Structure prediction request, 518 residues.
Amino acid sequence: MKHWLRLNRLALVRTFGGMVRHPVNSLLNLLVIAIAASFPFGFYLLLSSVATVTDKMPVEPQLSVFLRATATAAEIGKLKEQLALDERVAQVRYVPRDEALKQLQARVGSADLMAGLTENPLPDAFIVTARLDASPAELEQLRDTLARHSGVEEVQLDSAWAQRLHRLIAFGEVLLQVVVVLLAAALALITGNAIRMQILTRREEIEVSKLIGATDSFIRRPFLYAAAMQGLLGGLAACGIVAGAMWWLNPAVRDLAATYGEAFTLRMPEPAEIVGVCGITVVLSVAGAWIAVWRHLHRHL
Amino acid sequence: MIQFQQVSKRYPGGIDAVKQLSFEIQSGELVFLAGHSGAGKSTLLKLIAGIEKPSAGAVLVNHQNVSRLGRKALPYVRRHIGLIFQDHKILFDRSVFDNVRLPLDIIGFSGPEVRRRVLAALDKVGLAGKESSNPIALSGGEQQRLCIARAVVHRPAILLADEPTANLDRDYAHDILELFKSFHQVGVTLVISAHDESLMADYGRRILRLKHGEFTA
Prediction:
């Protein structure tokens, strides 16, 4: 055990020595790793930032059916009956005009909303919640059917865009998975190649070491340390790049969101995420290095 | 200590480097390996160290069949063998001291023991005081001595030297052979190859003569 620790310490010292001796090479490798890792991580943060907003939005497809002021009680009753029978409808709630006004006053927070008005301008309405699995086409069909009803003034499909946004985010998440897999492979290849270069510059040392009784793990160890170090620093640099990009983008994002009346910014990496990113880059770098050393040892020695 | 049983080595392309060799070298023996270049001397030494695997037959070192050992076991056998390479295989990116300490690092020596052993080995081969030089600054003979120091620093039981006197003038070659004799006197088993047989005669030891991969009288 003591012997093993000593060998590891020796390898670590050599690794640092190597990085200090070739600072430009080490830095370039590190930057390549950082940039490769910053793409999926940045994309992930972007998606999760957007998701925090969309999670608060109603996902259930909802229709607001506004009634004509002239609609008779019979017409309203018939519409209610029709809605109850419709298979596409999950839930119906009748909102009389007085209640709608109260809700509006509560939301705006002003009791004298009615100051300049002689009467309540709001219509009676049905808030119709369609089934969750209703497709956008079905919803539009439902809207058109309801709009043709004699007592109905107007039908609004409220949540169609939110639903689309959700589907877009779901698509983004799949896209993220694809990007992560591709860039993970790229990352392992990049470090594998960087380590291969290091192996080539130390070919003679490896050969001599092997001839005088070095085990494969003795030879492998310093390269794995170098790769782990590159992965760790590369991961940290990736987090730095992403944080910088968010900071750069945020004023523009804030302005854009303000035009929609939303207070929205892209969020910064959290400590747990930084640890996760570094963990992934370290594991991938070490895997790439392992393969590079394995190939060298088995092909040449 | 070293036993060859019907050992043949055929390289790709059908060239037989050694053919059906059988011999035994006792522990503590000093054996010379003579023959022209291409006679199979280097191959024979490589077979002992497990650097080459025989195409047929068995190579036993310390009762272990070297040719059958796997990747994991072979390094531990090599640690009992000191190798002196024909092309020296000195690392020019580090000092003389760091070249010699390499076997100790591999085996796992630590602390003042490393320095003590490296300096003792350098002293033994006559390179005392040169430990911080770069090997590039050493003469050919000194590089040969450095290679010997690296081979003996971990005190192996067997020392294999491939043409250690090649490219050296006669006096210098004698110095090197005297050095080997002193290792022999402390019980190390030595196998030394050379194409110049006149040097060996002075030492009156067993000589194995190789020609086209076979022993001659």
